[in-house]
Each structure stands twice: as structure tokens, then as C-alpha cells.
Amino acid sequence: MTEVLRQARRIVVKVGSSLVTNEGRGVDAEAIGNWCRQLAALAEQGRELVMVSSGAIAEGMLRLGWSTRPKELREQQAAAAVGQMGLVQMYETKLREHGMRSAQVLLTHADLADRERYLNARSTLLTLLALQVIPVINENDTVVNEEIKFGDNDTLGALVANLVEADALVILTDQRGLYSADPRKVPQARFIDEAEAGDPALEQMAGGAGSSIGRGGMITKVLAAKRAAGSGASTVIAWGREPDVLLRLAAGERIGSALVARTAKLTARKQWMVDHLQLRGAVIVDDGAVQKLRDEGKSLLPIGVVEVQGDFQRGDVIAVRGAVGKELARGLANYSSTETRLIARKPSTQIEAALGYVNEPELIHRTNLVLSQAEPG
Ligand code: GLU
């Protein structure tokens, strides 16, 4: 695991409400400043960072003069809308102090379940990372309240790790990590340094399936690690106030509990594509495109497409076939079948003239493309 973090190129860091707001005393400038300094230093090393931060409700409550968390969800959602302003303001200020640009992104689970929105969110985030901007993500609490009710953004952290195909998810919390039992009640509770993400024993340790799933307890973190492992990301749960925690983790130091993903990133992605058995359509490509895809690992451009089959939407999984009809690859289409018919055989510079807008220059970006197993011989 120490290797995983040391070599991780793309890291999602998630911080919970109590850390961000110092137990509800308002956005903690010093703590956020500390993480931002570390994020900037990691960016300097060539890593790509995404911050998933809670704390909007806690900050909003303070601004509204509420001393206890309101029972009604609509009031919590209103507090989140107020507090989000202060939260992003703090990240923006602190990241700028360290020479980094930031962006606010509000997401919901439903956004990521919808293929078109999934692809839009993914390409926006990947574009931000390519521009060396650090996205600061929270749940869009106005329209949904899953994390308010259950997760304190643990699940969102994992979904974001899946979305950007992070190498690692670091969940910073007010505990040192995961114990085999509640250390306050069981003195012989053992600290878990390392385990396999998704091991059912972890769920037992973190509270068991039958226990009430509180907001952001260990159970939501263990489940987040399992979810992150689905796309090949390993998770570390560590104390957010540990000095230089992010820098030390990235240097390979063992801190907190590591929940390691068993499946490698590429295999996980391939599996996901293969599992999308319901192909919505296909494109037949010319020999030039076959070579670019198979031999050079390039994206599929509209110019290589000679025929469009079926009816698909942006974000659907489609097959890419060669002239003889053999499946060459599968990938997420950036354009619908109707659009693809209009841009097929055209250079990407003509997409705008053909459609009136450009999503991306590629029909399938290479990061959304999985080559089919080459046949022997
Ligand atoms: N998205 C919420 C926030 O940022 C989740 C955390 C919570 O429920 O306190 O405040």
C-alpha cells in the first residue's frame, strides 16, 4: 500500500465536517490552509488532486446563528446553501495563497448514475485537472440529501474516485483510522493498518450491517473504500490533523488504515466496460483508425468512422469494429448516433460547422476506450 500512494498520480482527498469546521466552530482557516499547502506541494510533484469537502451545513449553521443542527432536512439544506459560500471562499483563498487555482463542483449521486451527466462531469473534471486546477467538490445539498442523512460525503468521495479513476482515495477524519472494535468500549481493540477493501469482516468491525448507519461513521468509510476499489482505487483512512499527513502518505509513510483495492485500475475499468453488455450501437472504422487505436493507443476521431450503427446517446457504451466487422474496442461515445452520422469522415476541426458546437474533438477518448482481447495469431 505504501507503494500505491507513493506512486499515485491522481488522488482524491475527502475531509469531513467536524475536521473542516473544527467541531462546528466555523470554517477552520488553519486546517484548510494546511491541507491546501500540502495539495499544492503534491501538485508540484506532478500529481493531480481533487478535494471533496463537507462542512457546508456546519458553517451555514454558524452563519445563521443556529447552535444545534436542525431536525428538518430542508433547514439543513438551507444551511448548506449558506455555508457553501464560506467553505469555497476559504479553499479558494488558501489554494491561491499557495499558487493554485481552484474550482467549485457540486455533484449528486443521480448525476453520476445518468450516463450523459456522468460523461459531462468526468470530462469537466479531467479538463480541470489537465489545466492544473484543483476541483473542490461537495454534494449539491439543495437538490439531494443522501450525504446529509447518511454519509458526510464519504460515498461522494468514492464516487468521485470512480469518476476520475483516481489511484487513491484519502479519507481524512477525526479518528486515527479503523479499529477491530470501538476502542472506547473495547480496550483490546486492534488497530487495522492494512486490509483488503471490500473484506466483509471490515463491515462487521465498523459497526456491522445491522447497526444504524450514522452520518459519516466508520461504516460509511469502509463502504466507500469498497466502492472506490471497484474502479481500482485504494483507500487510506487517516487522522486529518496528523502533521503533513498528505505529504507523508504520498512519500510512502504508513499512516492510518489502508484498505487496498485488489483489482488493478485498468482491469477494473475493462470489467466495467465488458459488463455493459447492452451495447447501444457501433461504429465501423477505417484501417487508419484501427491502427491508431490498436497500435498507437490513440483516441477514436470522427474522421476514422465510415459507418454508424444503431441508436445511441452521448455517454452510451458502443462497439468499435473494423471493416470486417470484428470488434476492436468498446468505449463511451462523446456524441450521439445522430451527431456521429453528421460528423463521420470529417476532421475534428469541422465538428463545430457540422453541429454548431463541439463536445470533444474525439468520438471516443482513449481514456474511455478499452481494446478487445487480440485474437492469437
Ligand atoms: N454536504 C454536507 C455538508 O457539506 C454533508 C455533511 C453533513 O451532513 O454535515 O455540509
Explained architecture:
- With 377 residues, the protein is α/β, with parallel strands linked by helices.
- It folds into two domains: 2-266, Carbamate kinase (3-Layer(aba) Sandwich), CATH 3.40.1160.10; 277-371, Roll (Archaeosine Trna-guanine Transglycosylase, Chain: A, domain 4), CATH 2.30.130.10.
- Helix content is 40%, strand content 20%.
- It is built from 16 helices and 15 strands.
- The strands form three sheets. An eight-stranded mixed sheet has the order 3-4-2-1-5-9-10-8, with helices on both faces. Strands 12-11-13-14-15 form a five-stranded mixed sheet, sandwiched between helices. Strands 6-7 form a two-stranded antiparallel sheet.
- Strand 13 (317-321) and strand 14 form a beta hairpin.
- The protein is globular, with a radius of gyration of 22 Å.
- Mean pLDDT is 90; it is low at 209-214.
- The protein binds glutamic acid.
- Glutamic acid is lined by residues 17, 54-57, 80, 138-139, 141, 147-148, 152-153, 215.
List keywords for this structure.
binds glutamic acid; five-stranded mixed β-sheet; alpha/beta; Archaeosine Trna-guanine Transglycosylase, Chain: A, domain 4; 16 helices; Carbamate kinase; 377 residues; 20% strand
Q: Brief overview, please?
A:
It contains 16 helices and 15 strands. It has 377 residues and is an alpha/beta fold. Strand 13 and strand 14 form a beta hairpin.
